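To illustrate the input format used throughout this study, we show a single complete record. The first block contains the structure-token representation of the backbone; no residue identities are included at this stage. The design step must infer an amino acid for every position from geometry alone.
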């Protein structure tokens, strides 16, 4: 069984140089930043990392680089199913598994087309399982090209296969989260919530942690919340309220905004994105600056050394 610890699992950004090429030094800086902030693990080659804009060799090279830089400090997972038949996907899963990741993540929207039934999805996943050896797997309810949420019954089937250990859940509704948590209770599959507003409630319901885009802005705050919500419930609720409000800023002109915000915190990466490079006017830049200043003033203890960066 792979090591999938509870806590914060950032969906990593992918740094590029201004000419659009991969910035390997930037990758190393990001890995160190997330780990220093308290990340329990790293999710590379995800939608936040512009995975659909990467060539197949870049996906493998990126995962391998993250694993190498993490150097055993935290485990790494990475997406491994893109367009193609189950046999083709299985080959890439095996290749991704050889990079040293703890689990290869199955994109739920890439296993079956949107109109196809859960039965078709399950049959395709079974073929993938049959052809990918014993590579440990995860699941990501990726919203692009369409969002395919797993039913509790289907999620339990995945858990009972003994191959799935990680879920990045994007349902964003507590009733759905609670039903899924009940379905996998007692199995080896851990659910990580991607929704900031429901995070604290999901942790109280049994979620293993957080794996969402807000961690590319405030990784130390999310790590603190995941680690301390039981011991300091009042402070945790105060922090949850801030993160829920800040979440509305996080989604504006993302991913370029996240790269700018990381650079403001001392992570020297360029804002360039292959998915597009929106203009940032004074309102955008002042908002990011004020967000950073406010969190440093309001949560210095939770930020720790990051508050001094």
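Output of the design step:
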């Amino acid at each position: 069984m792979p090591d999938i610890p509870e806590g914060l699992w950032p969906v990593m950004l992918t740094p590029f140089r201004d000419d659009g090429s991969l910035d390997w030094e930037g990758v190393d800086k990001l890995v160190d930043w997330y780990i220093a902030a308290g990340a329990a693990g790293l999710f590379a080659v995800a939608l936040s990392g512009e995975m659909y804009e990467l060539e197949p060799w870049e996906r493998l090279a990126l995962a391998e680089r993250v694993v190498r830089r993490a150097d055993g400090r935290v485990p790494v997972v990475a997406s491994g199913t893109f367009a193609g038949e189950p046999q083709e996907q299985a080959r890439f899963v095996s290749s991704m598994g050889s990079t040293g990741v703890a689990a290869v993540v199955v994109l739920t929207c890439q296993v079956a087309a949107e109109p196809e039934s859960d039965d078709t999805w399950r049959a395709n996943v079974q073929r993938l399982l049959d052809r990918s050896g014993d590579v440990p797997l995860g699941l990501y309810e990726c919203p692009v090209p369409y969002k395919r949420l797993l039913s509790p019954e289907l999620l339990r089937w995945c858990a009972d296969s003994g191959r799935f250990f990680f879920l990045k859940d994007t349902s964003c509704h507590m009733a759905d989260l609670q039903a899924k948590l009940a379905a996998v209770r007692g199995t080896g599959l851990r659910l990580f919530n991607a929704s900031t507003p429901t995070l604290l409630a999901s942790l109280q319901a049994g979620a293993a942690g957080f794996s969402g885009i807000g961690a590319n802005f405030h990784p130390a705050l999310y790590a603190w919340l995941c680690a301390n919500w039981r011991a300091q419930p009042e402070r945790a609720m105060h922090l949850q309220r801030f993160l829920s409000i800040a979440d509305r800023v996080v989604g504006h002109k993302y991913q370029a905004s996240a790269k700018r915000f990381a650079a403001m915190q001392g992570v020297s990466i360029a804002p360039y994105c292959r998915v597009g490079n929106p203009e940032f006017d004074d309102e955008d830049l002042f908002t990011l600056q004020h967000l950073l200043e406010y969190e440093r003033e309001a949560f210095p203890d939770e930020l720790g050394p990051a508050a001094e960066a």
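Structural context for interpreting the output: The chain has one domain: 7-308. Residues 56 and 92 are 9 Å apart (CA to CA).
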